[in-house]
Amino acid sequence: MFRLTLFPNHLWEQKITFPNLTQFMKKILVSTGGGDCPGLNAVIRGIVKAAKKSGKWEVWGSMEALNGVMNDPPELIKLTSKRTAGIHVKGGTILKTTNRGNPLEYPVLQEDGTWKHVNICDHVVDKIRSLGFDALINIGGDGSQKISMALNELGLPVVGVPKTIDNDLLGTDLTFGFSTAVQIATDSFDKLVTTAESHHRVMIMEVMGRDAGWIALHTAIAGGAEICLLPEIPFDLQKIIKRIEKRYKKGRGFVNIVVAEGAKPKGGEAIGHASGDVGDRHFKLGGVANYLKYKLEEAGCQQQIRTTILGHVQRGGTPVAFDRILATAMGVKAFELIAEGDHGRMVSLKNNIVTSVPLKEAVGGNKFVAQDNSLVHVARSVGISFGD
After folding, report:
1. Is residue 27 part of a domain?
2. Can you give the pTM of this predicted structure?
3. 90 with 318: CB under 8 angstroms?
């Protein structure tokens, strides 16, 4: 209770009782799903700051994607200004994340010991509503945004935020995390160039990207690779060998190759294996660098060949400035869409403007490197071979 004295001689006093404003606050739930990515924390912070400025919304986080909602008891944390202070410079996500527990294909153990994948999206929506939430901001890649669309179609207001180092989501020119991954890959490639030159070796560096070669393409141009192998352009082993021999004949004495994890030979398949994790039915790509080394040696390549697989190094660490800015802007835009009631959309970067697109557009496929892409033209023009 607050007592306000209007006159110093206390001729009269008026008592004003303020209501508990928190009971009128709306609640947003935030989820980070799929692989971790530099910039996730910056998005969370952007949402929280924008919500606080509005004075009308509370922000909560679901731990380990939507598993935090489905767990009994639920694992949720209130995202306050204090809890999110300074997190924009940190990699990973304070909400943790997982590839497991997809409500579209949720693993349920059967009586015979086998696992059956069922759609439990209606249960998730009911649970979120029962916990008092008015909307969901779901931060993730193509799989997460398919979940966003399914939940939104069931009546839960959902806004998606695109997250992937692969940069393969439709509906946005760039995804945050991609620029950091390219910087990490380029820094690593630069180091391999010096050791390749010192030992007159062929160095093969494998980067992430699944079926899209954006990281490999950008790294090859930035690092000055001789050969760049992409999932979108199947390679011919003999052409790679000829390029290596040409390089050595000119007296350069070393070759640096960037290969995307999803790259494959002409008429062949991508290298990888099925996941053995319960609830994860992804095909795990990886090993193409070692495969290429083996094939080159088998074909009689005389040069010493070494491989480096960057793997999850590309996902970790401090996001570069561009990704912090983009992620923060996307977090603010996601909150604004929720506050305006404009749900069923994914935040997007289009022509350097942060806007939004329908979720249906975002999950309509993947964004691959086209043969006529301008950067493919640039790479070919500076002498980079795609092995085709």
Report:
1. yes
2. 0.89
3. yes
Where do we find the tokens 């949402």? 47
CB 308 within 8 A of CB 203: yes
Give yes or no: residues 110 and 218 share one domain. Answer: no
Per-residue pLDDT tens digits for 75-103: 999 999 999 999 999 999 999 998 888 99
Residues 288 and 266 in one domain: yes
pLDDT at 97: 93
Q: Which of 36, 122, 134, 166 is catalytic?
A: 166
Residue 257 belongs to some domain of the structure:
yes
Same domain, 146 and 80: yes
Place of tokens 């690593």: 188
Dihedral sign (CA 140, 145, 150, 154): positive
Catalytic residue check, 190: no
Residues 304-324, mean pLDDT to the nearest whole number: 94
- Asked whether residue 73 falls in the same domain as residue 108, the answer is yes
Q: Does residue 80 share a domain with residue 60?
A: yes
- Map tokens 């952007």 to a residue: 46
Q: Give the residue among 209, 230, 170 at the shortest CA–CA distance from 371.
A: 230
For CA atoms 381, 383, 384, 385, give the dihedral sign: positive
Q: How far apart are CA 144 and CA 102, in angstroms?
A: 8
pLDDT at position 17 over 50: no
Is 384 within the bounds of a domain? no
- Sign (positive or negative) of CA dihedral 10, 14, 15, 19: negative
Boundaries of domain holding 241: 181-317
> Do 25 and 172 reside in the same domain of the chain?
yes
> Do 33 and 143 share a domain, yes or no?
yes
Q: H or E segment at 347?
A: strand 345-350
Mean pLDDT value across residues 248-275: 87
CB 268 within 8 A of CB 234: yes
Question: In which residue are the tokens 């404003």 written?
Answer: 21
Least confident of 12-16, 20-24, 28-32, 275-279: 12-16
Count the domains in the chain.
2
Q: Assess contact for 228 and 373: CB atoms under 8 A.
A: no
Q: Which residues, at least 6 apart from 149, have a Cβ–Cβ distance to it below 8 Å? A: 158, 160, 344, 359, 360, 363
**297 or 15: whose pLDDT is higher?**
297
